[in-house]
Amino acid sequence: MTLVDDFSEYVAALDDYNGRLADDYFDHIHSPTGLIARSSPKGPSAPDTSLSSTSLDHGPQVAPQTHFLAGDSSGGNMVHNVAQRWASMSAASPPIRLRLAGAIMIQPFFGGEEQTEAEMVFEKASRIITIVRADHYWREFLPEGATRDHPVVRVCGDGVELAEAFPPAMVVVGGFDLLKDWHARYVETLRRKGKVVRVVECRDAFHGFYAFPELADSGKLIEDMKLFVDEHRSKHSLL
């Protein structure tokens, strides 16, 4: 049985969650190529692919549109890297035709070589992500010889580059998520570099909790996303 087979019910639940987002609030849900896919060539090319597929790149000169990026787990990793690429290109000429008003990262799949306290304590809190699974995913994704201190994986710390135009961020952290220490370090890095960041803490949440509508935090997350989008959409419209 492959890892993908193990997650058929979970993937269906995620599809349902996207449907709830679209039905309740958002006009459009766009899903670019996933960050980690067994059939994809090795190497961190997904942010570039996503940059193109979401029309963040240069194109026909039409009226700029305001958008938000949102992603969970590996998609949250992609959101950070695409937002950084967009911010780095925002001063280019011709200008990028899309205004990026915010980046929502739901339990983003970040990491590093050393093992954090949360990774040891919450290793068995959720079968959706474990240390063994995380190691497998990074091996499938990273180029041969690369470690988890690769800049696409380790996005926190003094050596991390963040473009001046990096958009306001919302970071969702679960209290029982083995990745939560990496999320805390990432938030600290954003704040230290003067970026706007809102932290949504779900104290009783395991990794992937949002896919289960019976959990109160799942519905609350949609409301938190609405508030973030409304706040930064209105601010962006004044620019």
List descriptors.
239 residues, alpha/beta, Rossmann fold, 8 helices, disordered N terminus
Please characterize this protein's 3D structure.
The chain is of the alpha/beta class. The chain has a single domain, classed as 3-Layer(aba) Sandwich (Rossmann fold), CATH 3.40.50. About 40% of the residues lie in helices and about 10% in strands. It has eight helices and four strands. The chain has a four-stranded parallel β-sheet with strand order 1-2-3-4, sandwiched between helices. Strand 3 (about 170-175), helix 7 (about 180-190) and strand 4 form a beta-alpha-beta unit. Helix 3 crosses helix 4 (about 75-90). The longest helix has 22 residues, at about 215-235. The chain is globular and about 45 Å long. The protein starts with a helix and ends with a helix. The model is unreliable at about 1-5, about 30-40 and about 55-65 (pLDDT under 50).
Report the β-strand fraction as a percent range. 5-15%
What would you give as the CATH superfamily?
Alpha/Beta hydrolase fold, catalytic domain
Secondary-structure-derived class? alpha/beta
CATH class: Alpha Beta
Low-confidence stretches: 1-7, 32-41, 57-63
Rg (C-alpha, Å): 17 Å
Quantity of strands, as a count: 4
| H-E string | HHHEHEHHEHEH
Summed over residues and divided by their number, the pLDDT gives a mean of 79
CATH architecture: 3-Layer(aba) Sandwich
Total domain modules: 1
Taking the sheet with the most strands, its summary is: 4 strands, parallel
Q: What would you call the shape?
A: globular
- Please give the share of residues in helix: 40-55%
Distance separating the two termini: 52 Å
Treating each run of at least 4 consecutive H or I residues as one helix, how many helices? 8
Annotated CATH topology: Rossmann fold
